[in-house]
Amino acid sequence: MSFKLRRAQRLGGASLLLLGAAATPAFAQTPAQDKSSTEIPAVTVTAPSPIVRRAVVPTRNPGRGTRTARVRSRQQAAEAEPAASVPAAPQQGVLPVVTNQFATVTVVPNEEIRREGGGQLGDLLFSKPGITGSSFAPGASSRPIIRGLDVNRVGIVENGTNSNGASDLGEDHFVPIDPLATNQIEVVRGPAALRYGSTSIGGVVSATNNRIPDAVPSCAPSFQAYGLPTKAPLATAATSPCVTAETRTAFSSVDRGVESGVLLDTGGGNFAFHADAYGRTTSDYSIPSYPYLNDQSRPVNGRQPNSATRSDGASIGGSYFFQGGYIGASITQNDSLYHIPGIDGADHRTRIDGHQTKINVKGEYHPDAAAIDAVRFWAGATDYRHNEIGLADPADLNSDGIRQTFTNKEQEIRTEVQLMPFNARFAEVTTALGFQVGHQELSAPSPDNPGTLFNGLWDPNNSTRVAGYAFNEFKFTEATRAQIAGRIEHVELHGTTPDFPADYLPDGTPQAAIARNPSFTPKSGSIGLLQDLPGGMVGSITAQYVERAPKAAELFSRGGHDATATFDIGNPNLTIETAKSVELGVRKATGPFRFEATVYYTHFDNFIYRRLTGVSCDDDFASCGTPGAELNQAVYSQRNANFRGGEFQSQLDVGAFKGGIWGIENQLDFVRATFSDGTNVPRIPPMRMGGGLFWRDDNWLMRVNLLHAFAQNNVAVIAETPTAGYNLLKAEVSYKTKLDRNWFGAREMMAGIVGNNLLNENIRNSVSYTKDEVLMPGIGVRAFANFKF
């Protein structure tokens, strides 16, 4: 593949990647097969790097000779390159492999999201290599876990700004990003995480949608969409209103669930608008057998008690396009009411009633300047609140009420300036500079303990983060690229801790109830190399040094945390956590055999974790050590730790069959995490391996996959039990086609059926705090239909 082709496809504010199968003579046996195997899907990724490379075309400046100019529209790019270089639309079922980034990027495109479903990002990503979900409440609260790292080390962003819920404060809290309203998911590891902050040390999960439009909707094939801000007058765009719509609907048997969403896009001239609304409801889901390992006395009746969910949301947004750029804004409302499964949750009828209002603004401008290529910015403000509701006394139905409240008010702004590439003789250098500011205010009061030192998990606290970062990319040759990135941030936190008597703390160090105002200045850096290899492969090697400041929950916690069944004791004396990582990868995106393989090693100095002491508590310190107490005492502590692991996935187009292509695919991932003394880091995913068969053509996709998770016996010394392995069998059939608008107005349809856990296996998630009480859903069928108008 030529560099000229790669350049022409880097448009639209992000890199368009060449993915898919290019036929070889050995496989090109029939015209039908050639058509399927040579189609090159394109995937646009936006999260990995602030540096966006675009095509250049030669121009002539009288008196100055030939120079290069940026391509500022898709129309210009098409004129600059042969028609054959324009990529085809993404083909469903083709493994998307990202080869132009310096570390592994997992992409879940729109059609896969529609097929797979899932009420939470952790559910959607559960089986991806190197990724799983916390699945505290399957379908309701499941946060992505990347390479064994979660909460304070995995960032979650939507359209460039933080999701800003409370999922990093408790595993029972939902992620306020619903896959039903999402168009693409990107999971970014490695150096690009520096773009989002040290709290993304394990990686970033980025969700994108069209709530702030970056293009005016196209209703005619000749319409020139807004790919990049153009200096040409926008009269070339649509001048009359255009409306497109999409419906997303699904039904699931395992939980008698129903979900539906509607998305509308309209615009003309200089304006574009978007609106969407969605909702889903499920009842208690079916399970293969009795869920409670340590208590056989409770009625269950074939369903996981207290696991029903309900969620809905809506958003409106719009953008104004001007010469050289655009600016847009949106307002989004997310609401969720869901039950918490497990013995305690079922006994107390625990449920969480959460609400989030979020305002986002973003824009991009390409000035007519010799030094500046683009200026981009993102801003967001969030007001989040949820009530944890349940019975104070399981025997008294009149004691139902709010047991705990979490609030999060957060604001963020991030600005990036990408400079024009310049020739440094030894390489073409492109630089992007970024600046980020964030402020967060947290509270967690409890009406059960008013006026006491233990009125909730922590007192109100706040934090402020200010950061600057720089990314530099070097193109030494067409085949060799390098990246050097750095970030420095300053974090200030303000909170209090109550009196911690020495008798109640394992280290015997008392803590006084005074205001604490710690501040930290973490510094991080990375270096990476990307090299084209023979056979269409690309190799990468990256090294990172990342520092992370402790978060408020780690410093100021001081009470019972029902989600983790722990009595959390924060440690205001925590210091900066440091991670030193090396990652090596090889990837191939084109041809009949596509794959990506990655190995990594990370050493943590002062790794922050909840250290279980073996002491049990109830609601206050006086209860610690009493017989029958329900909560495990946990003190936030620091130790050195080592994480090492690897991921592999591949897809092979074997040959032609019935006018399409059939093939095989497989995957493998593992992570091993130990402290410096050889003991195990708690709650680490098991090794998994799997594979399957697929058949696809232009319309149909059929596949069956079996994923085997090995038993997890590498558990922490205190309060963690081994987890049995399982086999997860899935099968799916989907059909996608263009429609005659005269039928009922729709222009495109995708529909299908997906079977989950077809062996009806007992599946327990080793990373879940409630794994011994909560089974994952049993055998079920999901039917979905998606129409575009």
Automatic annotation (TrEMBL):
UniProt-listed Pfam families: Plug, TonB_dep_Rec_b-barrel
UniProt subcellular location: Cell outer membrane
One GO term of the biological process aspect: siderophore transmembrane transport
Keyword annotations: Cell outer membrane, Membrane, Signal, TonB box, Transmembrane, Transmembrane beta strand, Transport
Gene Ontology molecular function: siderophore uptake transmembrane transporter activity
Residues annotated as domain TonB-dependent receptor-like beta-barrel: 311-750
Polar residues: compositionally biased ranges: 294-312
GO CC terms, sorted: cell outer membrane
Domain (TonB-dependent receptor plug) ranges: 103-204
Stored SUPFAM superfamilies: Porins
Range of residues in the leader sequence: 1-28
Coiled-coil stretches: none
Disordered: annotated span: 58-87, 291-314
InterPro entries, per the entry: Beta-barrel_TonB, Beta-barrel_TonB_sf, Plug_dom, Plug_dom_sf, TonB-dep_rcpt-like
Family indicated by similarity: Belongs to the TonB-dependent receptor family.
Protein name: Iron complex outermembrane recepter protein
